[in-house]
Amino acid sequence: MRYPVALAAFALLVLGGCHEEAAEAPPPIRPVLYTVAKVVGTERFGPFAGTVEPRYQSQLGFRIGGRVVARDVTVGDVVRKGQRLAALDPVVTRFALTRAEADVADATAQSENAAATEARVRRLFEGGNVTQAQLDTATANRDTTQARLAQMRASLQKARDQIGYTELTADFDGVVTERRAEVGQ
Fold first, then answer.
1. Which end of the chain has fewer CB atoms at under 10 Å, N or C?
2. How many whole angstroms separate alpha carbon 126 and alpha carbon 129?
3. Is residue 57 included in any domain, yes or no?
């Protein structure tokens, strides 16, 4: 009998000791890493619609009308300053040049004739053989033909310039990025 009481007392001690141990020791503190969330404003720059274009560009075109007979370059070709890009049919401008040269020759002959007539009439007027009105008419005719000669010389210069406009050349070195003319247009 001694043993059961001792056993009961031992059991109480063991159970009592377990309960005290658990009550005395708090659970260990576990460290936690944390971050405070912040609102961050973002700026959006896209997507954009657009085109890629060169910094320096030149849109070239013919100065006169005509039919395109040659197109020497295409998109992507590298060109040098002064290189021919396209050409117009020069036949019409050559005819205009020929006509302007003929008009200058005609106006020159008429101007020389009117100047000679005015000189003759002036000599006759000084001799008293013609009237003042006839002298005035000869002088006016001379002035008119000289003005017509100046006009025809300007037309000749214009025709010469237009012969040069039949070829389109590059203004500077570069790359062809677009074409808007085809042979036959």
1. N
2. 8
3. no
